Amino acid sequence: MGHEKTEASASNRAEPPNRTPVVHSLNLNRSGFNADSSAKRSTRVGPILAGLEAPAAVEPAAFPIGAGAEAFRRRFFPDATEADWNDWRWQLRNRLKTLADMERVFALTADERDAIERRSGALPVGVTPYYASLMGLDDPQEELRRTHLPVGDEFVKTPGEADDPLGEDHDSAVPGLVHRYPDRVLFLATGTCSTYCRYCTRSRMVGEPGGEYSFSRNQWDQAIAYIAAHPEIRDVLISGGDPLTLSDDRLDELLGRLRAIEHVEFIRIGTKIPVVLPQRITPGLTNVLRKHHPLWMSVHFTHPKELTPEVDEATSRLADAGVPLGSQTVLLKGINDDLAVIKPLMQGLLKRRVKPYYLYQCDPITGSSHFRTPIAKGLEIIEGLRGHTTGYAVPQFVIDAPGGGGKIPLLPDYIVGRDGDDLILRNFEGRTYRYTDPGGDLGASKPVAAE
Ligand code: SF4
Fold it and tell me: Quick one: which H or E segment has residue 188?
């Protein structure tokens, strides 16, 4: 059903209906970043008729600052103005990256301090000030802190773990382009993220481009040429790294070049930026995105603590720009592996027009054992959601099969057994029901005696 809705023709790549046009002048600076990104420069005006001046009243597209973030700003960045704080480039420039940065903000444990000093190469340490403001500064067990501050367990390799567990390098058609499924490709557009998750599937390459992953113009050219030469590719997922760390211009260029390929029907962006750097969702960016519909976005959420006023604003801007939003959540031990955490997260996402899409079993990357949960935990959570809340709030629980097997969905077993022509099913309350299924043999391995 979802696919039917994605098969839009070029003629309906226009603005979504019922939208007042938002007019912004793009002011590009020399670095290629959109200097219009700060809220103070944007204007929301009604339709402008030829020969008439724009209305004098200008509504600034202000970005909210939540109470926790504001207290954090005043305490740790007293010289930063609200405009600085709400400027995504300021957030990137002021990321917490070094041991000194971290010690200034967090009461580090000896284990965290050692891990920060010890690590090198890909998957650097990096947290935006905004996202740090959501973390427990004095509590090493706080959930969001555990996802971004390294600990010694990260250096312990356990059986079954690998640097590239999904075999993406093996399935790369050209550098940075994974062609595993018949009609779609994964385009790794950049190795940069605004924050670095310690359980990242691409921990082998993010934050340290080089070798196979240069993300140069030449690499993009090769990937785009491959897509253009393969008419079976109808869907391109742009990921990385985080594609929304690219400047508006670069993103516009990439989306435009892909959109120009006749057989590419559908583009998706995978990103964590709306959660960890919501200030990046500027009017300039949404203007770029709305040019390239149908464009969908998968946003990486972890915990209900992330559902802040800033995230409300970011998701509203994206949804208002006509971008359908889906969520991706990695199940993490002691962080969100609890129905009492996942349920409000999924319900909160629906309220923000984000459809819960995937709940992932954590991939067995090297050094991830402290994050991984038993498979049964994911099934237990799905069972606790299905029937107990809105169906739209139930994501699909999947394992990305090691070795490149792709995503495999897992469901709780609702088949109790079979009694002749009757299939015996269990509902969400544990009650059993008969469904007459003449000639079928589903459930035959579990015969049930007639009542
Ligand atoms: S934002 Fe995504 S790509 Fe970047 S470190 Fe986190 S999981 Fe990996």
Answer: strand 184-188
